[in-house]
Amino acid sequence: MEPNSDQERRQAHALLDALPAEKLNAVRTLLEVMVEPLARSLALAQLEEEDLTPDTAAALDRARASLARGEGIPHDEILREFGLKQ
Predict the structure, then answer these.
(1) pLDDT tens per residue across span 6-64
(2) Which residues, other chains included, contact 24 with Cβ-Cβ below 8 Å and sequence gap of 6+?
(3) Would the N or C end of the chain have less CB density within 10 A of its end CB?
(4) Which residues of 46-81 are buried (b: 16+ CB within 10 A; e: fewer)?
(5) CB pairs under 8 A, 24+ apart, for 36-41?
(6) Which pTM does this prediction carry?
(7) Residues 19, 29: contact at Cβ < 8 Å?
(8) CB-CB neighbours of 39 under 10 Å
(9) 5-20: per-residue pLDDT in tens?
(10) Rounded Cα distance, 78 and 86, in Å
(11) Angle (CA) 36 18 6, round 5°
(12) Which residues make Cβ contacts (< 8 Å) with residue 9, sequence separation at least 6?
C-alpha cells in the first residue's frame, strides 16, 4: 500500500474512533454499500476464472483487448439492440 494510502487509512480510522455510537451504524452501512460491489465482482471474477474453458478464456482475452483499443459497443446501441431504447 502506498504511504499516502496508509495515512488516509489512519485518518479514516481516527474519524471512526471519534464518532458517537449512534452514528457508527450509519457509517458502517455506508461502507458496506461502498465495498459490496467490489467484493462481489472479485468473487465473481474468481469463480469465472476457475470455470473457464480454454476457448472461453481466449474469447475473453480478445474482448478485453478490443475494449482496450476502444472498440467497445456504445451503451445506447446495446439498449437499442434489446429494444430498451429507440
Answers:
(1) 899 999 999 999 988 888 888 887 877 777 766 666 666 665 566 778 888 888 888 88
(2) 16
(3) C
(4) eeeeeeeeeeeeeeeeeeeeeeeeeeeeeeeeeeee
(5) none
(6) 0.39
(7) no
(8) 10
(9) 889 999 999 999 998 8
(10) 11
(11) 60
(12) 1
Cell digits for 83?
429494444
Which amino acid makes up residue 15? L
Q: What's the CA gap between 43 and 72, in Å, rounded?
A: 24
Q: How far apart are CA 78 and CA 76, in angstroms?
A: 5
Instruction: Give the separation between CA 55 and CA 1, rounded to whole angstroms.
Output: 35
- The residue type found at 82 is F
* DSSP helix/strand/coil, 31: helix
